[in-house]
Design brief:
The protein is an alpha/beta fold. The chain is built from 20 helices and 27 strands. The two termini are about 35 Å apart.
Amino acid sequence: MSDKNLFYNRELSWLEFDKRCLSEAKDKNIPIFERIKFLSITASNLDEFFMVRIASLKDMKNAGYTKKDIAGMTPEEQLDELIPATKEFMKNQYQTYNRSLVPLLEANGLKIVRHYEDLTPEQSRYVDKLFERDIYPVLTPMAVDSSRPFPLVRNKSLNIGALIYDKKKDVTDIATVQVPSVLPRVIILPSERQGMTEIVLLEEVIEKNLDKLFLSYDIVCAHPYRIMRNADFSIDEEETADLLKEIEKQLKQRQLKKRQWGEVIRLEVEDTMDKKLLKELKKHLDVVDRVVYKINGPLDLTFLMKVNGLPGFDHLKYEKYVPQPAFSNGDYSNIFDKIKKHDRLLFHPYYEFTPVIEFIRQAAVDPNVLAIKQTLYRVSGNSPIIAALEQAAENGKQVTVLVELKARFDEENNIAWAKKLEKAGCHVIYGLVGLKTHSKIALVVRREEDGIKRYVHLGTGNYNDQTAKLYTDMGLLTCSDPIGEDATAVFNMLSGYSEPRKWNKLAVAPIWLKDKFLMLINREAENARQGKKARIIAKMNSLCDPKVMEALYDASAAGVKIDLIVRGICCIKAGVPGLSENISVRSIVGNFLEHSRIFYFYNDGFEDIYMGSADWMPRNLDKRVEITFPVEDPDLKKRIKDILKIQLADTLKAHIMQPDGSYEKQDLRGKVKLDSQMYFAEEARKRSAKPEDADAAISHDRVFIPIEAEESEH
């Protein structure tokens, strides 16, 4: 089905998400250094959007592909809307930067010197010395003339273009120099103003000293520029016998380096750039006016993340949150005994990731453990999980690890991990042909007095100890026999392509999961038609699967109350008369990145709760190995229901979708001010001080009591 009256375009929906991030940068109730962090995030998000999504649409257009998306738009029509929309978005970014954040930073003791002409004499002398000592040796000036072609400019690199005049030949040529990424872009200046930190950007220092790079020329003009290239990357897996070798080969052949040398899809320049210089850049980079973005401010606002890290400004940030112990008194010893007592629910980053690390680490040294099996999608640079798996193999355990080599932008990293694990004696699987393995599962097989016991961790996020401090994710530690059997079946499927006859508890994509979700949604719809109470609450990162959205529309028409918590892309329409009156959509954008996937179905009072790795997107449900698992322990189910209620009650960080697809924050008049993330952080601190297990059922003395009307609907 392709109907713009039914669904929003995916790419425009994504842009709405970045607008929500930008709204956090504009929020006057947020500390100034948190606001500049959000502005940096919007810039980073937009870069990836161009390199992957805009690039993909351009590829489709160039190939003559005219198939319409779910909103009824061809690739060309999408580009026609997206290019001006992204230009308007960038304009809003820089208005926020120039009009709001820069003056506010200066009022709070941090001055960003915009142009090198604004330096004081002392500062000017300082940066000149710095240039000669630390910067000049690193630079490579490139003049362009009949004998020297325009150099290849790297993707995302910041450069300075200049027109240079040769007095002897009476000729003006173009020149360029790359601003080195190996040097700090933010330079702290000596300041004559007490209590004031002053900074200047590296490109300004280079521009000031450009004459030292082109000694035989006069500098006519000089301006920074930045390009974005097509960085989309795909492999014909059907023709690939050995995926590891194929990806390595492409790396060596620089096919992956298309990210560095692909078609220029965005050229960023200062809005004051000399017209002749711009003309020369367009010619040499082979770009048209449409992809030129003229900017009033410093190019590449991701430098603000470095500004956020400057010392002396902690009072202008949120207090750094420290994850609380997940178990009572932070005692993770004998973890298998603890899991055997009852299932353990993990809630990151409010509680530590340590139980997951200890689960693998203790398994590695436990003489009763026979085997460890795990999937890895993205891991940290110095991963304790990897170290534990290596140790397990060295200790003679049977270790099987699926390392997903096709994790976008992590291919090289994951190849290194795969080789490291193989060298240690692990059996490494390199994903499946035609599919990404995105599931988060770890299985430990242990010999015990009463026979073989299987312990399983299932999660919504990656096995990454660093992102676990930044992303909100959930996990389950269990020794349930039915889940253990399913976990074994998952790994047998991944290693031997053997599909189980049936699943006990798990639902696995790409074959079974979509049907499972459609069954659960349709069951609620049927209950509503029979006059029974019906309710769906679903939390995820993205929603754009047509069949799932059509089922939700049908359920809404049947009278099912549907609350969707979708962080990013959401193509469904909410609150549209005759289509989705019973559907609400909210997006929570806060200090942590919302990443958990939780699915609640009322089921005529026999409530079903599932969590997992999959969003409701075609790529997750049809093209990836994903796992969704049930939460069945009554105490843990209550806890998850409470978490969902708090998120639905969020009045400070929740953006509500309007019928036209835009998002607005709620009017706070007459409402309790509630930031769900801050609530969970405070709750974790309070609960960690109590003697009971941190992952037991939530106690009744809650900081915030959800609205009773919500309870009555259940």
